[in-house]
Structure formats: C-alpha cells, structure tokens
From TrEMBL, chain B:
Name under which the protein is recorded: ABC transporter permease
Highest taxon of source: Bacteria
Membrane-spanning segments: 12-31, 100-121, 133-161, 167-185, 226-252, 272-298
Keyword tags: Cell membrane, Membrane, Transmembrane, Transmembrane helix, Transport
Organism expressing this protein natively: Heyndrickxia camelliae
Gene3D superfamilies per record: MetI-like
Keyword Signal: no
Length: 303, 305, 511
C-alpha cells in the first residue's frame, strides 16, 4: 500500500479513555462478546498460544523422530491422525510444533519492527531536520520494493535459519511503523497540550515519554494487528521458496515446500500445514479487525 | 501540482539509486558465484582466475563504481550463466509477467466489484455475509498454498489443466486465479465499504426519492463516485501483484521476471539479480508515484507535504 | 459505463495474446505429441548456451549432444571408449596423442569435417577469451597439430594419461566456419554441428526444438522432431508426463516411482549411474573425526543397507569404497558392514564415550536423491549408539561455499560425477588443496601425487588400487551408493538409459 494512503487512513487521534484498569479489562471482554467474529478470532489466538506453549506435551509423537518404515502413511493410520510425511514423521505433531515457530516469528517480528520503527518514527517526527530527511529516504528506498522480494533477497544473503528470517522480516517491516508513527507524531506535536508543555519548558524527553507515547499506543496496535498476518504469510512464503526456516525444524512453510513434490500421491502433506496457516491468519485477522473497529470508531465500516 | 510531480520524480530517482546500491552490496556480501559456475573439479587457481575475470578480486568500491557507471547506460553486464546481456534477459521476461499481472487484475476487478456492490446494496443480509466471509477467507489463504491446491485438483486429480509452464492459454488459467485471489478479497471489501459510504450520501437519497430505478442509482451514481478510490486501490495493488507474481510464477513455473529472479538468486547470477531489482524498483516506484498522484488529486489536502 | 467495457477489453486482449507468452509453436509441437514423429523431453532448465565446449553443466551437455558429435564416445552400458568422429587413437609417446578421423563426414551446412575443425575446437577451449569452463581440465594441452586432413596430433606439456577420457567426456565438434561467420554470440543461438539434429527453434527458458538432419553420417534419424521443454518443478514435470504432454524425463524421486509405474501409459527405465553419493568424514574440521578410529567407528555405526532400502526404496547400488563398480579403475575393497557394538568398542579405544559425542552433519537439499532425508536417517542411526548429530540443511550454493572454505561440519554429504576413472574422483576429493575435499593424510597425499602422472595403464590401475585400499582403511568416507538414474518413459517409446546420462534422440524410436 502506498505510504501516503496508510498514513491518512490510520489516523486515529482518539486518546485512550482513562477508565480504571479493572473496568478496562471487563469492558474489553464485554465488547468482545458482542462480536461473533472478534470472539472467534480471539478464541483461535488463545488456542494457538496454548498449542505453542504446551505443544510438546500435547503432541502425540515426537515431531523430529523419523521412522522410515512408516513413511507417507495416509491420515488415520496407525494412530497418525493426519498421516506421516516422507520421513515417517507424524504430521499432526509437526504442525503443533510449527505453531510455536510461527508464533515466535509473528510476535517477535511485530514487536521488533514495531519497536525499531516507532523509535525511528518518533525521532524523525519530533526532531525533524536532516535526520528526518535521511531516515525517510531510507524508508522510501525500502518501500520502492515489494515486501516479499525484499525479505527474499535479504534472507538469501543472510542464509537460512530462524534468526535470519526474523531479521529479514524486521528489516522489511519496520518501515511501516516508522511512517505511521512519524505522521502521528507530526500531528501530535502541533497540538495545544504539547505546545504548552514546550512553552513551559518541559524537557523534551519528558514530553515524548509522558505525552506523546501514550497517544501512539492505539495506532501502533492497529498497525501491528495489520502486520502480524503479513509476517506470518511472508515467513511461510520464504520458507516455501527454500529459504527461511530449514528442515528438520518443523515450520508450516517448509513443510509445504517438502510436501509439494508429493502432491500426486500424498495430498495430506500439503493440505494440513496449509490449513494451519489459513486458520492462524484468519484468527489474527478477525481479532485484528474487531480491535481496529473498537479503537477507532471512525474507521468502522472501512476496509 | 507540478512542483509536487517534480519533487516526486527526483525522489524516485534517488530511491532507485539507493536500492541498487543496497542490493549490490548485499549480493557481494553473500559470497561469489565462481563456485557455482565452474566444474567441481576446477582447481583453486582457475577459481581465482574466474573471479579475476568477473572482476570480483578488485576492491569493493572499485567494483561498485564500475557497476554504477555501466548501469546508468543500461549495461548490467552479462548473465554469468548464459552470457547474454542481463537487462535484455530481464526485459525479455517482462511481457509474461505483465500478462499474468494484468489478467489477474482484470479477473479480480471483474469478480470483486460486483461482489462488493451486491454486498453493499444488500447490507447485512445473507448475500452480504457470504461476500464478506469470502473476502475474509481470501485474505487468509496464502497464495502459494492456493496454487498447490489448484494444481492438486485440476492437474493431479482431474488432469484438466497443465500444472506448470507457459505457452498456451490453458497454462495461464491456474496461475491467474491464484494471483487474483488475494486481490479479489481486498477489492471486494474496499468496494463494499466505499459503496456503503457513498450510498449514505444525500444525493443518493435524493435520487431514490425522485423515483430513479435502483439499478440506475447503483450504477450511474453510486458506482461512478466510488470509482476513484477504487481505482486508486487498484493502482496500488498492481504493486502487490508484482510481488505476489514471484511466488505464483515459481509455483507454476511461469516464465516471467519473478521466476527469473528466484532462479538467479539461487544461482548467484548477480548481473541478472541486479538488472531484475532495477527493473522492479523502477516499475514499483512508477506505480506508487501514479497512485500517489491520483490520491493527491482526490485529496487536495495531501499535496501540501 | 465506459470503464467496465474497458476492463473487459483488457482481459479479452490479454487472453488472446496469452499464446505469445512463450511461443505459438508450442501449441503444435509442445502440446500432445503426435506419437509417431516427434518426442518431447522434460528437463529442469534451459541450456546456458548452444555452443559446445563452453558450459560444463550436464543440462547444457545433454541437449547439445544431439546437435554435435564427439570424437570418441562412451559405450552406453560399460562406459568404455568407442569411435564416433574419430576412428582410431594412440600415443606416439607420453606427450603426443595421434587421432585418426572419420572420412566423408559433413557438417549440417555442408562444410567438411576435418582435422582443422578439431584443432579449432580444442584451441577454442584453450583460448582464455572464450571463458570456457572446460579450460582447467584441458590446461595441460600445449598445442594441436594438423598432420593430414584426417589426422590430428595433440601435444601435451606434461604426460596426460586421462586424455582420452577428457576427449570422450568434454569435446564436441562445432563447425569453425559457422562460428567464424556468425561470431560467438550468434553462433551460440544458431549452432552447426555434425550431429543428427539441427536447431529449429530456441525460446529461452521455455523450450528447444530440434529437427532431424537427414544427411547424418550414421543414417537418417527415425524421429523427425525433438523438443526439450524446460520445467523446473518436479511435480510439474510429473504432471506433464502423466497427462501426455511430455514423453520422457529423468530423475524420478523414489517416492513417486509408483505414480509412474501404475500409470498404464508409462514405464520406468533405470540404470546405475556413474555418479556417487557419499558421507565425507571431514578431517579438515577440528574434531573427533580427525581420529582414524572414530571414523572407522562411524563406518560400523551406519547401516548403509538400511538407508538404501528404507530411504531410497532400494534404488541405488551400494559402494564400499570411493569408486563405483563401473569405474575403470575400480578394485574391490572391504565392506565395514553394520556392527554397532564394534563401533562402540572403537570409540572407547579412541577415548570417547558415544553419549558425550555431539557432531554436525551438513547436507544440501534436493541436489542428490533424498539427500537431506538420508542425512536425517544417518543421524537417527548414530543416535542408536548414543551419538548426538545435528543435521544442518544448506541451500546448495551455501553448501558448496562451506566445503570450499573449510567451514563444513564434522561430516557432510556430497556427490560426485559423472566419473569413470579413478583420478577424477581421487584427485579432487582426497587431496589437501582440492576445493571440495574433506580429507587430508600425508601418506595418502604422497601416494596420489605419485599415481597421477603414471602413464602405463596397468601400473596406474595398480597404484590407484592401492590408494583405494588406503582410503577405505583410513575411513575417509562412509561410502553410500551409486545413484540409480530413474527415467519416466512413455510406454511406446523405445529408450535405453545410458551410463553417461546422455539422452540421444537418434537412439530412440517409437514402437
């Protein structure tokens, strides 16, 4: 999406209502239960979190154990609910193990790119001047390139592995945060309450931390909810193309990569990991949509 | 307005220059391709000789300077594999990618807009729920998985369509559907919400009240006014399509720029990767540029940036 | 209202021009093959160039061997040398080889095939300007002399005992006249050879179509037209094959063999390849494997028969030493066999408790049949005696770089080939400075250096035989197997796989 369009659409200047903490949580769940889709998304996410944390106890088999005598078994044979792959490993267990990886990637990349992007956005937007110009040029360079291609090229250079795919995604992803945060800061610093702080000599750091930051939470959360799904799909795509997380580490993307040669005889190798990705993305998107609608009434009904 | 255009053009040039620089250094850091192009039994001195011939033994800044000088003239060197002019090779694959992208764009517009209109018109009814449901699902399905499923059903199980390659219109069907899927979802949602906004407007109510038939209201007034934001989104999505084309081309072995780029990345065929990056950066920048102009035209407040 | 119609117009024109993505010809020749007259072969990638003697890759070679002839070729079953464009060859002395050429052969454009043409082609490789990737293999050639129209002498700067192998494996004859007339760039797209097929059309990254050369010196080809179609994804190749779009392709993954066998219109042809796969026990990496006893223990702990049976479904020929049985210099070496107790014993002798050992295994993915799967199976086998192995899967380019830069782990999987003689394998895989070597031992190094220049074939075989015994004793590898080349073939196509992996349309026919 063009940077301009995003900046002007994600522009909520709603300050978080200052209700007491306990009621905030209750308010949250009350609103959530009103939305069927939001609730569904939330439940899916909780389910995934549980799988990610407790996966190794729930999984029926060892996701890494190869058993060559049992390779390519169809679903519902010998206790393998979803079948086995070309090395005889249980697919269900591998999908569960892959949940952990997808969650780690999704959460870490959003967190890191959010952190880095926001810091840069704040510096750029508040201090302006030549540092703003340079930083924004860098952002422009990155945005001149399709996200997935950027992640691919960076990852091809860095080499495979979990650490590197996270780095590649963060390198691709921080720009969005930087742009959005910057435009928020630009708008905020002209506001009356900030101007009066400056006039009364409040130190800059205090202004930033005490007054600007709290108002950034909403747009950052909104953007994060939009980005998580893209990161998960980007990681799966890169792993599918042969980079990213490598086997034998189970990740949904590389399971699809390994499985694609077996389309003709063992359809279950690609069906279930793919479904896992779809359900995850769906959950994240549904919940994210609901969250956005809640936080920014202006945007209700928009795309 | 003119000032805006000039400013953005300069920005575009700077940006492309920086992108090339970044990729150049990234590639050089990833090691050298001599290993992959020489036979495995080549002795160390031939590998060194080959590296010398390619100029990889010179200091990095010299290589970079040389690269820039030639790149400005459109000379990205020769493919390390086929010794053809790199930029020509890339440009030769462009028509295939554009065909796919435009077909996918056309298909998604054809499907999405009616869905969006229907959804908006019959808001919160059964049709709307299905429409919205499909779009939400569409945005959750990774394109390569959809591609694999389509291959599975149409090629493996039913032997109806070829599973890969280029050449005939039959080869184009599955990749186009795959590429279009995500865009259909986005366009439909956007059309729906834009139409909803427009339908609330006064002049629509006036038209309805004065007895204009519903179809006419929908198409002549509502759609017409929703078109500009929709077109803007479409222009933007052309860029997303280019990105998605890489994956689709790989899954279906479609002979376009995306697949070329992937293969060259794997083969460490640097000149092709650089020429490809250059081309994509240019096209993407131009698309964003046009989209931003269109957007600025629609929202005059933005121009003052 | 105009807009929707514009959209439709766009789609319509796009759809109509879709046929030009690639080429219209493919609708006729690349589509369902009209069985009697043409054959469509599916292959992973495009040739790098159609010039001979330039790009050392198999993909290029297999296609252009239909356009050009070699001087000497290999027997399809034994790999032995047979006449092609050359009828006789001999040494005058250790530095001079004399080759007698076939008379009355013409290039496809009418130019005569003669000694000048041979000289031209060898000089082409030696000329640095041409950037031939064959150069390093021919570096010991000093000059080529034209003795008569049908006789050539090759003078070497050092004794070059494997000269004939080089000629058989590398050298194809291009028409000098064509190259001189068109220049290299054009000749790369419009080649002229003496072979059974001429180029009808080459659409890069899509297909190469050849038509029969009816004046071919061996006789008129029975198949009129042949197309190589480029399909990089295996599943696409399989799908194209099962639906009849292509008639032949090489390299069926072992788990998909049944798909081909069970199809009523197809069959599987196989042959033991000259390519070998092995697990290198890396002595160039600091670690327990620098100890000979540890390496021997690993040999006892890996059950190659089980790997072959369960991972490769029996497709491959087990090896016990560095050379395969079809290698000319092969001697039989002892098989360590599977003996986990002996393995534990040896490890104890070397001072290691298997449970404390943590080793790394580098492998590529998809380069050799089931390579990463074999790696994981080996790790599982070693775990049975308590050794912990971490399998590192590398993208191909990275894998090669790691080995070259001596950054690979304790063990790595690699393949080698095609290889028909000892020197090409041993010199490149067991010496200190060889780029892809994982082994160095001073005694072995000396032995190899002494064996390379030996000219007398019998003495040579003996010397390399001793080296093979040394290598097995030193446990430089866990030898795995000779690859089985598996071809998916249309039931009505008469195709016999060759040991040199070439696909010569001239030797194929429709029933």
């Amino acid at each position: 999406m063009s940077k301009m369009m995003i900046e002007n659409e994600i522009n909520p200047t709603v300050v978080f209502p200052s209700i007491k903490k306990k009621s905030k949580v209750r308010h949250f769940f009350k609103q959530l239960s009103k939305s069927k889709t939001g609730l569904a998304g939330f439940i899916i996410i909780i389910f995934l979190l549980v799988l990610g944390v407790a996966g190794s106890w729930i999984a029926p088999f060892d996701p890494l154990k190869a058993s060559f005598g049992d390779k390519l078994l169809p679903p519902m044979t010998k206790g393998h609910l979803l079948g086995t792959d070309q090395l005889g490993r249980d697919i269900l267990s591998r999908i569960i193990a892959g949940t952990k990886i997808s969650l780690i990637i999704g959460i870490t990349t959003v967190f890191l790119s959010g952190l880095i992007g926001s810091i840069i956005g704040i510096i750029s937007g508040y201090f302006r001047g030549w540092i703003d110009v340079i930083l924004m040029r860098i952002v422009d360079v990155q945005l001149s390139f399709p996200f997935i291609l950027l992640v691919l090229v960076v990852n091809a250079v860095l080499g495979a592995g979990l650490k590197n795919i996270i780095i590649s995604l963060v390198i691709g992803g921080w720009v969005m945060f930087a742009r959005v945060v910057r435009s928020e800061v630009l708008a905020l610093r002209e506001k009356e309450f900030i101007l009066s702080c400056v006039a009364t000599g409040v130190p800059r750091w205090e202004i930033i931390v005490k007054h600007i930051l709290p108002n950034l939470f909403t747009p950052i959360i909104v953007l994060s909810s939009l980005q998580v799904a893209s990161f998960i799909i980007a990681e799966a795509s890169v792993s599918f193309l042969g980079f990213g997380v490598q086997p034998p580490q189970p990740a949904w993307g590389n399971m699809l990569n390994e499985g694609k040669d077996y389309i003709f005889n063992s359809w279950w190798l690609i069906t279930f990991p793919g479904l896992a990705i779809v359900i995850t993305t769906l959950g994240v998107n549904l919940f994210g949509d609901w969250l956005r609608d809640e936080l920014d009434p202006e945007m209700k009904g928009e795309s | 307005m003119v000032e805006f255009i000039i400013k953005r053009t300069i920005q575009m040039i700077v940006v492309i220059f920086l992108a090339l620089t970044a990729v150049f250094f990234l590639l050089r850091l990833s090691g050298d391709p001599a290993t992959l192009f020489l036979p495995p039994d080549a002795p160390k001195d031939q590998i060194a000789q080959y590296r010398e011939m390619l100029g990889f033994d010179r200091p990095l800044y010299v290589q970079y300077g040389d690269f820039l000088l030639k790149a400005i003239q459109g000379d990205f060197g020769e493919s390390l594999r086929s010794h053809e002019d790199a930029l020509s090779v890339v440009l030769g694959r462009v028509p295939a990618t554009f065909q796919l992208a435009f077909a996918a764009l056309g298909l998604s517009i054809l499907i999405a807009i009616p869905i969006g209109i229907l959804s908006a018109y019959k808001r919160n009814t059964f049709y709307d729920r299905i429409g919205v449901g499909l779009t939400v699902l569409g945005q959750a399905i990774p394109s390569f998985w959809l591609g694999l499923l389509l291959i599975f059903f149409f090629a493996a199980v039913f032997h109806l369509l070829p599973s890969g390659g280029g050449g005939t219109i039959y080869h184009m069907i599955l990749p186009t559907i795959t590429l279009a899927a995500y865009s259909v979802a986005r366009f439909a949602r956007f059309t729906r919400s834009t139409m909803l906004d427009v339908l609330k407007k006064d002049y629509i109510r006036t038209a309805k009240a004065s007895g204009v038939p519903m179809m006419r209201v929908l198409f002549k007034y509502a759609l017409k006014n929703s078109l500009i934001p929709i077109i803007t989104l479409v222009a933007l999505d052309l860029g997303v399509l280019l990105g998605g084309a890489v994956i689709t081309e790989v899954v279906f072995s479609w002979p376009g720029v995306g697949r070329l780029l992937m293969q060259s990345l794997l083969n460490r065929d640097f000149p092709i990767v650089l020429a490809g990056v250059f081309f994509i950066a240019v096209v993407y920048s131009i698309i964003n540029f046009i989209a931003d102009i269109a957007y600025a035209y629609v929202n005059p407040q933005i121009r003052v940036k | 209202m105009l807009l929707p119609f514009l959209m439709l117009l766009v789609i319509f024109t796009t759809a109509c021009t879709a046929g030009t993505a690639g080429d219209e010809e493919s609708k006729s020749s690349g589509g369902k093959s009209s069985k009697k007259n043409n054959v469509v072969i599916g292959i992973e990638a495009d040739a790098a160039t159609l010039l001979a003697n330039t790009d050392v890759n198999y993909i290029t070679d297999v296609q252009i061997r239909n356009i050009y002839d070699p001087l000497i070729k290999r027997n399809p079953e034994t790999g032995g040398f047979e006449p092609a464009l050359a009828t006789e060859w001999k040494n005058i002395d250790e530095y001079t080889w004399e080759i007698t050429l076939r008379k009355d052969v013409k290039f496809q454009n009418g130019d005569p095939f003669n000694a000048e043409a041979v000289k031209f082609n060898i000089d082409y490789i030696l000329d640095k300007k041409n950037n031939s990737t064959y150069l390093s293999r021919w570096a010991d050639i000093k000059e080529v002399k034209v003795i008569a129209d049908d006789k050539v002498q090759i003078i070497t700067s050092k004794p070059f005992p494997t000269m004939i192998a080089r000629i058989a494996d590398d050298l194809l004859i291009m028409d000098p006249g064509n190259v001189k007339k068109l220049g290299l760039e054009e000749a790369a797209k419009n080649p002229v050879g003496t072979g059974p097929y001429k180029v009808k059309e080459w659409v890069r990254d899509d297909h190469l179509t050849l038509i029969a050369n009816d004046d071919y010196w061996k006789g008129k080809p029975s198949i009129k037209e042949a197309t190589f179609r480029y399909i990089p994804e295996f599943s696409s190749r399989l799908s194209a094959f099962l639906s009849g779009e292509i008639d032949l392709f090489k390299n069926i993954p072992v788990d998909s063999l049944d798909n081909v066998k069970n199809n009523e219109n197809s069959k599987v042809e196989s042959i033991g390849s000259s390519r070998v796969n092995y697990l290198a026990l890396n002595t160039l990496h600091k670690g327990p494997l620098q100890n000979q006893k540890v390496r021997q223990a690993i040999n006892y702990a890996v059950d190659v028969d089980e790997l072959l049976k369960t991972v490769l479904n029996g497709n491959g020929t087990k090896m016990t030493g560095p050379l395969s049985k079809i290698n000319a210099d092969y001697v039989e070496t002892k098989d360590y066999g599977y003996n986990p107790d002996k393995a534990k014993e040896l490890l104890k002798e070397a001072g290691y408790d298997p449970k404390d050992l943590k080793l790394t295994l580098d492998t590529p993915n998809g380069r050799y049949p089931m390579d990463s799967q074999v790696a994981q199976a080996i790790a599982a086998q070693l775990k049975r005696i308590g050794i912990d192995v971490k399998v590192q899967v590398n993208e191909w380019g990275n894998h090669l770089t790691k080995i070259q830069q001596r950054k690979a782990g304790d063990m790595f999987i690699l393949g080698w080939g095609p290889t028909f003689d000892a020197q090409s394998t041993i010199q490149n895989l067991f010496m200190k400075d060889a780029p892809y070597s994982g082994f160095y031992d001073s005694e072995v190094e000396k032995a190899i250096q002494k064996a390379i220049p030996i000219f007398n074939q019998d003495k040579r075989k003996q010397a390399f035989g001793e080296i093979q015994q040394l290598l097995v004793d030193q446990a430089a590898w866990v030898p795995l197997w000779q690859q089985a080349d598996l071809y998916a073939v249309n039931k009505n196509l008469d195709f016999k796989p060759k040991v040199d992996e070439s696909m010569q349309v001239f030797d194929m026919g429709w029933k």
